[in-house]
Amino acid sequence: MSSAAVLRHRIVHFVGRLHFYDFGRWLLLASLIGIVAGLGAAFLTWGVEALSHLLHVELAGALIPGHGKGASADWHSPTRPWVLLIILPVAGLVVGWLVQTFAPEAEGHGTDAVIRAIHRERSVIRKRVPAVKLLASILTIGSGGSAGREGPVAQVGAGFGSYLSRLLNLSSKDRQLLVIAGMAAGIGGMFRAPLGGALFSIEVLYSENDFESEALIPAVIAAIVAYVVNASFTGWGHIFAAPEVAFSHPVELLSYVVLGMLLAVVGIIYVKVFYGVRDLVFRPLPVPAWTRPGIGGLLLALLALAVPQVMGGGYGWLQLTLDGNLPLKLLLILLPAKIMATALTISSGGSGGVFAPSLIIGGITGAVFAELAVRVAPGAAPPAAACVLVGMGGFFSGVAKVPIASLIMVAEMSGSYDLLVPMMLVGSVAFLLTRGVTIYEEQVPGRIDSPAHLGEFQVDVLEQLRVSDVVDTSAPIVTVSPGTPFRTILQMVSESGQEYFPVVNGEGRLIGMFSMEDVRRVVATPEVWSLLVADDLGVAGSGVVYLDPDEDLHTALRKFMAAQVSVLPVLEGPPPSRLLGLLSHHELMQAYDRVVHRLQEPA
Predict the structure, then answer these.
(1) 208: helix, coil or strand?
(2) Residue 598 confidence (pLDDT)
(3) Phi–psi pair at 76, nearest 5 degrees
(4) What pTM, to 2 d.p., does this model score?
(5) Which residues contact 564 (CB under 8 A, 6 or more apart)?
(6) Count of domains forming the chain
């Protein structure tokens, strides 16, 4: 064979191994989702900034600090603070009416709604949700609500991914991957953190150490495209302009461990207040649901009269914290005030994300810790800016259960990659100390706990069921006494629809078991009929394979397979014990199918 022929053969062999269909499909679909999410992020940014300038700068007379490179530190409180008592409640009422009328699932923080759709609604998101979410979030955040922009754009990207999969009649599995890719595009595009957004989308679904790894590649592609589209319209720089700080002193790790513990405590308080305000304050109110965001807006306005820094996304205030321009006294006031402001905004039914407020709360906690650490242990105290950045990532790691994504996102948003080591440590400490506490209540512990994956985990479903849940103890059973003659057994078998017959004594205790197959074998030798009784057929005594009512169905299935039978008796204990019923392999599998079908149905 010539060298040209060898080369041609190798090229054909190489091309034959490439998955062009999957490559082209995911590249195209994920790119389309990224484009839509990027445009959604740009539209939301413009809308929020325009409305905020109109309401807060022009009407209320406030000067809001900027953020990012070249941001100004100039700011002042509203010169006409009474305007806040109008714009916040009115905006809340409009948001409440809009959401409750057209898309109730658009209320609250959008990321949690996407998580719910993936786990419990077969990744189906109604077409109207993204548009309603965008408008409601512009009104909520632009009017001064303490909420973030990531949740709305995540719901926009996820919603388009769901719509696209249904338009193309893709499988439910592909729809799930596209919805996750849409969430990644929204997060990565909005925060100019494509890698962090992709990791966030596959990590945030679960509260324990589990990932939706199959979605990583489409998530990465969608996040990259969304980042490029959004940055093309809104700018390419990092969200925050961070000072040059790096980790180089091992002794600082002790301080970072303490910071992680402090972040965990604040995180638990944050989550408890967030959902406590919803469950104990707003939901019990005897008013229509659409009016609750208006009430939340009024309460937020009253809070903002005292602490105006709680309003809006708050990136400018976080930039001032990074630059060390906020005094400790203000930080101590702003920390609980921001927690309450976020709860009043979102838990009342307003529309917005929780990521941005979480970053601010974590950053402020880090700044407070830095101030105190310098006074208590100056030799081991990290730089203040480092504590702010590490606090941002560590706090969100704990409350959102995304220890990997949070540190990458903060690094991308600030350009501070030299702090990855302390971020990893603080994030791990906060994550471990906040087990069972999460700001995303629709998370499940792992893939085996997700209804979207139950069909993939037969063993785990069977282990959740008990024999007593399935066996019908009231069903009539034809039993045979030990001394019953074979001729009588023949007549009983011919009149009964059973395939297996328990042999029980006078006390109702099982001492043996035989099947139709055992009877058929004897029928061929009529000369022994007169000699045989029921006790001579099948299996007797301790040889009987039985089921305990407290056993799980996985154990029962293994017994069926080992005994090579289709029916097993359910006993109170080892033979001879009282017979409770008979369970067939068919009934066991029917129970499994019912559970899987029920859990996979939309809630």
Answers:
(1) coil
(2) 67
(3) -155, 160
(4) 0.76
(5) none
(6) 2
